[in-house]
């Protein structure tokens, strides 16, 4: 998966470089290559980001850690502000 992500990112980069070179030369097919490079690069960025988040989540699960940061906050840790989990506002210590 990581190799696929790297290959896609490099392909998008090369496509952008080709479009930039065509821009320098004022090639007649620049509008197509510019639009194609922009579209491909944005699609690759979204896919690679999604894959990276999934890979990080799988790694955390494999190591026995919470899959998301929200899950880490939901564990049975005392609230540093003195609130009890699930308590209504105003049920905490005075001043909170």
From TrEMBL:
Compositional bias of kind Basic and acidic residues: 62-82
Domain of life: Bacteria
Residue ranges occupied by any Acyl-CoA dehydrogenase/oxidase C-terminal domain in the UniProt entry: 1-55
Keyword set includes Ion transport: no
Name used for this protein in its record: Acyl-CoA dehydrogenase/oxidase C-terminal domain-containing protein
Organism: Angustibacter aerolatus
Keyword tags: Flavoprotein
Positions of the UniProt region annotated as Disordered: 60-96
SUPFAM superfamilies in the cross-refs: Acyl-CoA dehydrogenase C-terminal domain-like
């Amino acid at each position: 998966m990581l190799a696929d992500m790297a290959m896609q990112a490099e392909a998008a980069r090369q496509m952008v470089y080709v479009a930039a070179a065509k821009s320098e030369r004022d090639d007649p097919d620049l509008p197509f290559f510019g639009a194609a490079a922009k579209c491909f690069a944005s699609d690759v960025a979204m896919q690679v980001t999604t894959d990276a988040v999934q890979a990080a989540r799988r790694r955390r699960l494999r190591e026995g850690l919470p899959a998301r940061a929200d899950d880490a906050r939901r564990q049975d840790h005392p609230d540093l502000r003195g609130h009890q989990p699930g308590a209504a506002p105003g049920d905490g210590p005075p001043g909170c």
